[in-house]
Amino acid sequence: MSGSKPDILWSPHHADRYVICDSELGLYRIGPVGSGETKAGALPLSVETAATLLAINSDTPYMKCVAWYPKHEPECLLAVGQANGRVVLTSLGQSHNSKCKELMGKEFVPKHARQCNTLAWNPVDSNWLAAGLDKHRADFSVLIWDISSKFSPEASVAAEKIRLSSGDTDSGLVVTKPLYELGQNDACLSLCWLPRDQKLLLAGMHRNLAIFDLRNTSQKTFVNTKAIQGVTVDPHFPDRVASFFEGQVAIWDLRKFEKPVLTLTEQPKPLTKVAWCPTRMGLLATLTRDSNIIRLYDMQHTPTPIGDETEPTIIERSVQPSNSLIGSFAWHPTSQNRMVVVSAANRVMTDFTVFERISLAWSSTTSLMWACGRHLYECAEGVGGEGTVEKDIATKMRQRAQSRYGHDTVQVWKNHLLAGGDDPQLKSLWYTLVPFPMQVSLMKQYTEDVEQKQQGSKQALVYSGIKNIVKSSSGTTENRRCWSGSDRQTDVPRFHSEERSLALRLCGWINRGPDINVEPFLRSLEGEGEWERAAAVALFNLDIRRAIQILNKGASAERGDLNLNVVAMALSGYTDEKSSLWREMCSSLRLQLKNPYLCVMFAFLTSEPGTYDGVLYESSVAVTDRVAFACMFLNDAQLPRYMEKLTSEMKEVGNLEGILLTGLTKDGVDLMESYVDRTGDVQTASFCMLKGSPGEVVKDPRVQCWIENYRNLLDAWRFWHKRAEFDIHRSKLDPSSKPLAQVFVSCNFCGKSISYSCSAMPHQGRGFSQYGVSGSPTKSKVTSCPGCRKPLPRCALCLMNMGTPVSNCPGTGKSDEKVDLTRENKLAQFNNWFTWCHNCRHGGHAGHILSWFRDHTECPVSACTCKCMQLDTTGNLVFLSRSQSD
Amino acid sequence: KMELHILEHSLKVASIAKEGIQICTHGLIKLAFLPSKTRCKFFSLTETPEDYTLIVDEEGFKELPESEHLSVAEATWLALNVVSGGGSTTNSQPIGVTKIAKSVIAPLADHNISVFMLSTYQTDFILVRERDLPMVMHTLSSEFTLMRVVNGETVAANSLGVTNGFVKPKLVPRPIIHPLSSPSNMFCVTSLDPDTLPSVATLLMDVMFYSGGIKEPGASSEDTGHIRFFSFSLIEGYISLVMDEQTTQRFPNNVLFTSASGELWKMVRIGGQPLGFDECGIVAQISEPLATADIPAYYISTFKFDHALVSDGLQLSTLSVSLSLSVCMVNCRG
Prior knowledge:
The complex is a heterodimer of chains A (about 900) and B (about 325). Chain A has about 900 residues and is an alpha+beta fold. By secondary structure, chain B is of the alpha+beta class. In chain B, β12 and β13 form a beta hairpin. Chain B: One of its GO terms (biological process) is negative regulation of TORC1 signaling.
């Protein structure tokens, strides 16, 4: 502090006052800029605050350290430690307090002069002032003075007189006898009182940290370390202490004092100050020499340091309060995260608030929460704003999971309704996934009734996509048809093959059967009010009259568009003359039509045969319609090229309509990958790809990743049942995903699983079949543990060992047993199962036990009063239903 | 149990001839006044009528030129320091070497281990030859908890556990065999705030290097029975000064730390011929009787002679009794 190094002390009781000490002491008051109190000479500290100098004290030269009296009164009493080891009490400003006057100028003098390094007032007994001094060969380095003590005459009179004559005018104010003397022949660099007990003092000595206990001064706890400077207790955590040495800060836990619980990253320059934030838990600020930044360490996540090996994580960051080099800083005692910084030169002060880190957390249900300082903000998805903003995919997936989306395996297309029925891509996807058994049946020349069989063996048949189907197209025939309802010959060639027909069916244009009849499809489109699309499909099937009819219908329908009549009029004027005015106008004006289907209708009519780019690349037209169109009008050379191009386009954008082309193949996974990248919808991806081939598609790491993520999502939403349902669904489609057995029956004697030796196939329950579960009488039964050959437990009723089928033994109520056996075969098998009470551990064959409890409430084992069945909830149900039926 | 710290400095002990001091001043000033410019952690310079004695660690030794005027004792020395340690804090405080006379110095003398003493304002350093360290540790391990300072951190020193081959101590009475003399000027052991060092640096340089030029008015120092003796040390950041009363008066007020009793010390100079480095028991011969009589003392070894500082005044008669034998010898020679 001697000139070069200033320091700041905040008043312990007035949050608006602080003292700057460099070569002198200056008391400042901080207040808002321009407020009535602040005078013209106020120094700006920030945009909003300014400081006013209240008082200056330059009475005490050779200042080394200063400490502010901790009690309310006297208010501005300071203890100053000097270069020669003397401690002087002084004050700032006028004080009329009598106690203050009495104490003012009082000096505490050590026997041997050497620098006073540190001072600490006892926070409880404020008369106690601890001073830490440099080393002397024959003196103590920690002196605890009682500021209320008077000059003690018994102290060696002669010697005192010699010394005091040199300058001390009023010897009544000099105290030479400390209350306690500690740390002989050692140096004390830093001190702080411990909040655990008012008589515990932590001192940074020459090469160790020591805790002196004033209740027993002959004992001290100490640890050898270099980090002995600036000891300071965390105000929020009384057992946590920070100290430093050169560039390194050590954090100690006093309960485990042997070594630091952590050391912070070493700074290249020596530290000058380390201070815990009084208003924020676990925040430590550090300052190094010649630096313009303050480094902050957030130990928020380490409330209790644990273990030898695990170093808790800390978040380090730095703040720059101003551009100049920082001399010192002090946290504001009450204002959150606020500090005043004083520059190394010229006493330039800055009022600065450390901006709190923002921590952010997503909940599993799309709401977002973030915390800053003492504020907590939540951002939830708007409930009322339906339709205006699209819901987050997580919300959608959650709703869909609740509506059992993906689980309808019979009417697969219905899944799009379960998903809400408002997503055209999902609609297309699930309609695409519907007809694949039919596709296969057709491909393999199966008859219609085969379809049912295939329901059972779904896994073997995988939809491979139109792209692959038309690739293998052969025997294409070409014909030119008339416009229906007109005798005019068209010059539009149409192509036919079995594969093309299949593709048309997959696109939903035609039904099963040999004819190409789009009428049912048109009707369904009319039914849904998709007039333009219906008209376009009719037109592509060369039925202009039907198209016009549809448009008229559409115009006259409820809320119909009257413009459709105009379009119908335009259509009716169709002419195939190449240079007609109609053609010229249509090809230019069609681009102004907003509806893509109306647009492609005219594109079709005005195109040259074989060049239908206006239709094929109109991206607003559904992929199914474009594919169907292509299958009708593109030749064998053009078709695969178009398919390839469209597929890669679909893959690029992740459009699920493209699954129609790719099928559930590797290509399909690629497409799905970009869909998931775009939407995050792992739910659809999981359900869809599970229908792919287990060997190739389901095993794909991407697919496994989606599945696992979807399962995790369900877990995060606590949809345990949904997750279990999904797992069951999954294991049906992908048997390799079945979980391994998780429950085993272990032998009483050797502790090994009794299914252990027979578990070559590690699947659940396999081993148990040999213990009477399978019910086959010819199969050899195992009645002893395969590990140690000791017998298995006996049935409490028939006294036979576990593994013996129930039919072999004469049990109670045998007649009932027979009824059960005839009634249901499955129940008979269950009767052979071994069951036991989890409370008393007695048990036996399930059949025996069940019949026993039909008439009894207590355990069949004599002297056991356990009411086993009443403890079993499902058992109670069975019991009740039985007794009702009886 | 007290702790004995074996410090990490590897020390050299050297003598600079008075006529050769100017070739070393550049290095010495750097070591004494500009500690941030060197990596030296242990520096002590003592001027006696014969020469300058320099104790410096290896880092500091690099600052000095090779010269015919600079003679260096062969051995590398290690400094030992007794610390009250983690145990009790007693209120009886024997000052300086008296405290360690019986526990350290005498046992080492019994084992024929030569020691070199340096007392400072802050503490006493017992220098032993590095090669004697195993023997030192063996000798003192029963009395002390031995600690080594490694990279500034104290760690338990490995007990060597070797006892075979060590010479059994011969516990014989130790008469004072070297002549003693006592100059008439009184001495002061003091220190100052390192922050004020720059303000008195020129004065210190004058005292340290130009004493020969100042002829005190009237009589020469020989005639008054005064001895020229000044010691400056800067060890681990702590400054210690030993100077006679007349020299203290050249310093401004409030710069030097005056101890509570303002005490002055009488010097006893040991040796008629240069003592060399191999003879053992010299310190013990002096310190043991002082400890017995509970007389506080400082002890400073230099390249050629040893110097004990003992309390002035009332205790002088006790001193005479304690050291009666040697006083007798001085008289014989005188």
